[in-house]
Amino acid sequence: MAVSHRDAGFVGAIEVVYLTIAALVMVVFLGYLGRLSAAGVQVTNAAQDGARAASIAATPDEAQAAAAAAVERSGLPGRCQGSPSTAFSWMPSELGTWRGALVTVTVSCTVANQSLTGVWTPGQRTVSVTDSQVVDRFRR
């Protein structure tokens, strides 16, 4: 069966349409990965800021408040659905005191997939990061 040259042009146009659709899907997927990575960096920065703020506080109660305040100031609440959750814990130093203790701050942020892709996408992702800092022994 012979194929006319006119049919070959039509098949070529369909292939271009399929390649264009595949390229658009790849661009959206790469945008999704980039924005997910950026969200992870923002959560990491917020956790580090919270842990550092907690490590320079005078008492564990002040440290917990300082960590929560640092996360709120980080700009992360604008990225998350609702507000980010902040968990604070500490382990006493070898002497059993606050000075020299290890503080740990965990920040979790739930991000809508739609905000990551730029187009309607169902679902959401939760990004969670933990950071630890040592409380300064020489701080008054």
Radius of gyration: 25 Å
Low-pLDDT stretches are none
DSSP helical segment count:
3
Order of strands, widest sheet: 1-2-3
Strand pairing plus helix content: what structural class? alpha+beta
Biggest pleated sheet: 3 strands, antiparallel
Describe how the helices and strands are arranged.
Elements: H1 5-55, H2 60-73, E1 85-91, E2 102-112, H3 113-117, E3 124-134
What do you see in this structure?
The chain is of the alpha+beta class. 50% of the residues lie in helices and 21% in strands. The chain has one domain (5-134). The chain has three helices and three strands. Helix 1 runs antiparallel to helix 2 (60-73). The chain is rod-shaped. The termini are far apart.
Write a concise synopsis of the structure shown.
The chain is α+β, with helices and mostly antiparallel strands and 140 residues long. Helices cover 50% and strands 21% of the residues. The chain has one domain (5-134).
